[in-house]
Amino acid sequence: MVLERVPTGIPGFDELCEGGLLRDRTYLVSGTSGSGKTIFAMQYIVNGIQMFNEPGIFVATEERPQHLREHFSVFGWDLEKLEDENMLAIVDATSTKIGLPSDEKYIDVRPFDTRSLIDQMITIQDEIGARRAALDSTTSIGFSIQDPAKFRVELLKISTTMEILGLTSLFTCEIVDSSGISRFGVENFVTEGTIVLYYTRSENVRVRSLEIFKMRGSNHSKKIHPFEITDKGIVVHSREEVYSEI
Ligand SMILES: Nc1ncnc2c1ncn2[C@@H]1O[C@H](COP(=O)(O)OP(=O)(O)O)[C@@H](O)[C@H]1O
Ligand SMILES: [Mg+2]
Fold first, then answer.
1. How far, in Å, is the centroid of ligand 1 from the Cα of 172?
2. Integer Cα distance of 65 and 71 in angstroms
3. In the beta sheet, which residues pair with residue 198?
4. Number of C-alpha atoms within 13 angstroms, CB side, residue 86?
5. KaiC domain spans which residues (predicted)?
6. CA dist., res. 44 & res. 158, Å (int)
7. 36 lines ligand 1 (CB under 6 A)
């Protein structure tokens, strides 16, 4: 049986994993702060719209949507236009959390509630018929739930719902150092694969690299590949490897 692939469209990435992610599965993108998780997730969503005509949902728990629109305009991504075209829905799960009012179209309630997020996804699905989603980040949800066992169940509910809704998704996860692949030790159990982004110091410069740590059903690269953040977003150097110790 040939499994359907969902290309991320991120230059150099898809060739590391037989053409892309598996359709209707959820993947974890882990990395320390500043490693490029939010850019990776948004580039996946924007490419889905622009290259594959697949609408996308971006759940933002850490940055207000207006900041995302502003920051990502430097990569030439006009998020507002994509939203106006009903190809992109950004859920503001940030403002209410910090007690600010929001005039966004899609707002998640406070405190975090899985049922409400799922209802929101179903409503958006009816409106835009998304095929891709990003949840940025699971870590802030983990902090609001606290108990790892409960967090695992809630994440499983979210990922399963996304899969049933026909969404191929990325969940980001902020780790504190590069010794682990998840923050609460449970996020990787509810996802089909884990991509780890590194931002490590090598002498007096920092180097970005990534690794496909796990990807079920895929003969993926087992190497660590350098990547860059350019004025068009992430570019992975798939033919190069990083040998130094991470
Ligand atoms: N236009 C740009 N060109 C190059 N690097 C950039 C650009 N915009 C952001 N970055 C880099 O990306 C980092 C933020 O990436 P982000 O995806 O927000 O990280 P994370 O979500 O992992 O914390 C910044 O700290 C900066 O180093
Ligand atoms: Mg981020």
1. 14
2. 10
3. 209
4. 7
5. 4-246
6. 19
7. yes
CATH of domain 5-236: 3.40.50.300
Produce one character per residue of 127-148: b if its CB has 16 or more CB atoms within 10 Å, e if not: ebebbbbbbbbbbbbbeebeee
Helices 148-164, 114-128: axis angle to 10 degrees equals: 20
CA 233 from chain centre, in angstroms, equals 14
Instruction: Tell me the two tokens of residue 212.
Output: 């496909």
Helix, strand or coil, per DSSP, at residue 202: strand
Asked whether 235 lines ligand 1 (CB < 6 A), one says no
- CA–CA separation, 135 and 176 (whole Å): 19
Does ligand 1 come within 6 angstroms of the Cβ of 61?
Answer: no
CA distance 137 to 13: 21
